[in-house]
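Technical annex, item 7. During the second reporting period the consortium partners agreed on a shared format for inverse folding records so that results from different sites could be compared directly. Each record opens with the tokenized structure and is followed by the designed sequence. A conforming record, contributed by the partner at site C, is shown below for reference.
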């Protein structure tokens, strides 16, 4: 049968109109506590909060390996690290694998990714990509183009990444649905914001977490080995922007040559006149250190405030750019038919246990924010309190587009549960496995299981177990493993953990399991 051409056009456009567009936004190390939809005590993020108001907020969303590259590999494969091969940040992702963007493409979607990629091999499965090399830079960042050229661009990373996203949206084929990933560098370490946000945050004072001054006593080998202490490991110059000149005569604070070089490299990239203005603001920190030489807890007190000022200033810029992107959707009649996700690669320590960074299976870093807006499908202002995990992202996005979820993906689509049909995800607990010990912050390898109530962690290289009751001890400070009253809980969880490893095909031999 022959269709008249106009009818064919009509049918295709009606069909494609029914398929939602997808914008997936991932920031780097953005903890839920730094989003006002989750916690109002640190910062206001009105634009990110729009997704919570107009959509759904996930309150128990977790990663399975709290480190950047592995999360991103899980995002596109729907598989845990041991299956997708990306166990740590150093691994090169095998770009010949079948992935979520490739499946979108095969199903008639236009696909694009801009920003942080961090999988070392170049992106495949995208009609357009423009990525930061490695961790990327804040000012005058370099981007890798599809020709594999590395080009330095003028501006600030978060603004530029948003510009690129909007630019691609303008240029795309408007007759096809799209799946766009917008991956920010911010607010990742070295926490450097644009001048106006440094100005807005440098005088702010933040509440201290209850465990900021936590001591090692009572904790295991992994705590003793970690190097993620704000007091001992966060650098005054390269992380907190204190001009080394202020510290050269203070033996206990004097930076080494590597830190000085890092400081210079960061500042040299900031164009004038902002560089001088930013230096002027940060001079306050140098003056103070020179004047009072704080040490121990008193130094920690200052470092914590400065860390949060810098980190949250970066978040403010992410929020501003989120506003630009959401406005673009409003102005271009795209809001209604676009599912928008806001997500971070993992959680982040903002002073809990005296730490920064992530990696641990403890909730602070295992939990990661997720907000989804999908007008007409997801009821505005709802909360989702069931356990969800990184392996679910790809199945969920594919399912939203009406695309069959392939067998190789290990997660489940959450769509039926968040679009009003109700029901409970058929899964009681989540699997976790962190591998990257010999790297920054020296957090020991560990694996474990997280249920609604309890969490069991096994640091297998030192044969140490930790068991937490998340209801009575949400900050995971009291290891119940050796408590005879919890023997049955321990044995049940250990059995479940072994089962979970089988179910997810983690066949790596682990001593003691
Ligand atoms: C860098 C940071 C670390 C951070 C890792 C991984 N050091 O190496 O603090 O843990 O990235 O972060 S820095 O001095 O180079 O900033 S991740 O988000 O990419 O996994
Ligand atoms: Ca990260």
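Designed sequence (site C submission):
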């Amino acid at each position: 049968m022959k269709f008249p051409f106009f009818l064919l056009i009509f049918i295709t456009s009606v069909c494609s109109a029914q398929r939602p567009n997808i914008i997936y936004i991932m920031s780097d190390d953005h903890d839920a506590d730094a989003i006002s939809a989750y916690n109002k005590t640190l910062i206001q993020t009105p634009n990110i909060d729009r997704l919570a108001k107009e959509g759904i907020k996930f309150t128990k969303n977790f990663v399975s390996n709290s480190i950047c590259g592995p999360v991103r590999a899980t995002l596109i494969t729907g598989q845990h690290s041991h299956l997708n091969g990306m166990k740590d940040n150093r691994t090169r992702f095998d770009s010949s694998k079948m992935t979520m963007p490739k499946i979108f493409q095969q199903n008639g979607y236009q696909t694009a990714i801009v920003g942080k990629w961090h999988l070392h091999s170049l992106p495949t499965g995208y009609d357009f990509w423009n990525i930061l090399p490695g961790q990327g830079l804040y000012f005058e960042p370099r981007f890798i183009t599809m020709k594999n050229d590395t080009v330095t661009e003028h501006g600030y990373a978060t603004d530029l990444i948003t510009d690129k996203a909007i630019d691609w949206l303008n240029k795309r084929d408007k007759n096809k649905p799209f799946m766009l990933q917008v991956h920010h560098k911010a607010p990742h370490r070295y926490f450097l914001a644009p001048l106006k946000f440094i100005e807005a945050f440098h005088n702010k004072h933040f509440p201290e977490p209850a465990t900021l001054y936590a001591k090692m006593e009572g904790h295991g080998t992994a705590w003793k080995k970690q190097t993620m202490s704000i007091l001992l490991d966060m650098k005054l110059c390269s992380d907190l922007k204190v001009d080394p000149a202020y510290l050269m005569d203070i033996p206990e604070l004097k930076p080494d040559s590597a830190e000085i070089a890092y400081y210079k490299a960061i500042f040299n990239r900031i164009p004038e006149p902002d560089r001088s203005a930013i230096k002027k603001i940060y001079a306050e920190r140098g003056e103070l250190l020179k004047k009072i030489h704080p040490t121990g807890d008193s130094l920690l007190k200052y470092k914590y405030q400065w860390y949060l000022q810098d980190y949250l200033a970066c978040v403010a810029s992410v929020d501003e750019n989120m506003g630009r992107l959401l406005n673009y959707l409003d102005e271009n009649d795209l809001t209604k038919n676009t599912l928008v996700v806001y997500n971070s690669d993992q959680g982040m320590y903002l002073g809990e246990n005296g730490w920064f960074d992530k990696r641990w299976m403890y909730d602070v870093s295992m939990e990661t924010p997720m907000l989804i807006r999908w007008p007409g499908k997801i009821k505005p202002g709802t909360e989702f309190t069931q356990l969800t995990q990184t392996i679910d992202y790809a199945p969920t996005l594919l399912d939203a587009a009406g695309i069959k979820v392939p067998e190789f993906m290990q997660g489940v689509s959450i769509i039926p549960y968040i679009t009003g049909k109700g029901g409970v995800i058929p899964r009681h607990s989540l699997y976790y496995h962190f591998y990257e010990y010999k790297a920054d912050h020296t957090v020991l390898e560990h694996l474990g299981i997280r249920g609604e109530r309890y969490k069991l962690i096994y640091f297998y290289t030192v044969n140490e177990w930790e068991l937490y009751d998340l209801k009575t001890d949400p900050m995971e400070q009291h290891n119940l493993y050796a408590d005879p009253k919890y023997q049955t809980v321990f044995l049940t969880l250990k059995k479940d953990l072994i089962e979970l490893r089988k179910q997810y095909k983690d066949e790596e031999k682990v001593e003691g399991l």
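Residues 5-16 have pLDDT under 50 and may be disordered. The domain at 445-503 is CATH 3.30.1120.10 (Arylsulfatase, C-terminal domain). All partners now use this format for quarterly exchanges.
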